[in-house]
Structure formats: C-alpha cells, structure tokens
Amino acid sequence: MNKLEAEFSNLVKAYRKRHMGKGPGRITTTFCKNWAICEMEGNLSPVEKFIAGAEDGKQMLREARTQWVKEIYRNNPPVEMEELLGARFLDLYVDIDIDKDFGMSIFVFDRPLPQS
What we know:
Elements: H1 3-20, E1 26-32, E2 35-41, H2 46-52, H3 57-75, H4 79-85, E3 89-97, E4 102-109
Antiparallel strand pairs: 1-2, 2-4, 3-4
C-alpha cells in the first residue's frame, strides 16, 4: 500500500466513523484502474455481533450493511476522497462476510487512479 492508498484508507475509516458511528478496525486499499479496492476488518459493533447470533440475524445484518453503506455514500458524497484523488466518485460496490467480520468496498471513480 503506497502513501496515497494509506491516506485513502484513513479517509474511508473517518468517513464511516462520522456517518455510521464506527469505522473498520483495519483497512487496506489497493488502486486498480479507476477503482479503489478496500479490504476491511473489524466492521461490526458489539450490538451487531449480538444480532448476528439470532435467527436470520446474519442475513439481516448483511443486507443492512451493504445497502445502508451504499445509501450513505449516495446521500453524502465523499468529497474528501474526491479531493485527495482529483477524481469524481461515481459508484460503490459493497459486500461483507458477517462470520469473518470482513468486508470489501470497491469505490469507482471517473478516471484511472495512481498505481503503486
């Protein structure tokens, strides 16, 4: 992870903490073409971990985590990320494995990002 990717990871963590109340414990970012691919560990709050133990809890959390995160970015564009990269944010793809507490987010921008 180069310096720019590390700065991007810090912005993602701060953004999620500001808009969701908790950011991931660890983020690793890789730039590829016009994508910023973020691997995230330690996403779930203690309450979410409790909910995951209930019947249908994992599926409910997965749906909430993926759809809610995308909605937050749609309603609150990540201006700081755009400024850092000099690129416009277009879309976000999100998935999470509740059992492993591991998530992936792929940020799509309007131009190629600097490679490592």
